[in-house]
């Protein structure tokens, strides 16, 4: 009986530790979007590695599906330069987080709103690395579409 009790306690403590790490990953992503919405480059930079990779999957004007790669600094400049008269919000709808040691993946479906009107939807896929001081975003790829969002 003692062995079963010990096993249950061990399993519960492992589950709690895993949930704690998942929350730390989620908090990093939420902090990234906090900086994004506040147009605060300092907050955004605190959540990413030194050279994060950013990519987007979407269609061009001809309807071809392409992958675009963007420099993080270009994203920062474009977010910071949005005029105060423009309201934008990326609403994360859920988090599906998987962790293996110092690596994590987070899948976050989203809706993007511009001036309180629906603009597009998609999914973000974050890859994160824990360098011992906390989780940092090393790779972000997203999809963007206007149809099939509900």
Automatic annotation (TrEMBL):
It comes from Poritiphilus flavus. It comes from the Bacteria. The keyword Signal applies. Residues 1-18 form the signal peptide. This is Nuclear transport factor 2 family protein. Keywords: Signal. InterPro entries: NTF2-like_dom_sf (IPR032710).
């Amino acid at each position: 009986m003692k062995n079963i009790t010990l096993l249950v306690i061990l399993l519960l403590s492992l589950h709690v530790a895993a949930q704690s790490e998942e929350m730390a990953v989620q908090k990093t992503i939420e902090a990234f979007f906090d900086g994004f919405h506040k147009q605060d480059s300092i907050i955004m930079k605190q959540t990413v590695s030194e050279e994060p990779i950013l990519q987007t999957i979407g269609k061009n004007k001809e309807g071809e599906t392409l992958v675009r790669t963007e420099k993080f600094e270009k994203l920062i400049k474009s977010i910071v330069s949005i005029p105060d008269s423009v309201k934008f919000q990326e609403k994360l709808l859920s988090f599906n987080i998987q962790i293996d040691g110092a690596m994590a993946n987070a899948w976050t479906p989203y809706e993007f709103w511009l001036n309180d009107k629906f603009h597009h939807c998609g999914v973000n896929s974050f890859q994160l690395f824990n360098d011992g001081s906390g989780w940092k975003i090393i790779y972000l790829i997203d999809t963007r579409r206007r149809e099939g969002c509900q």
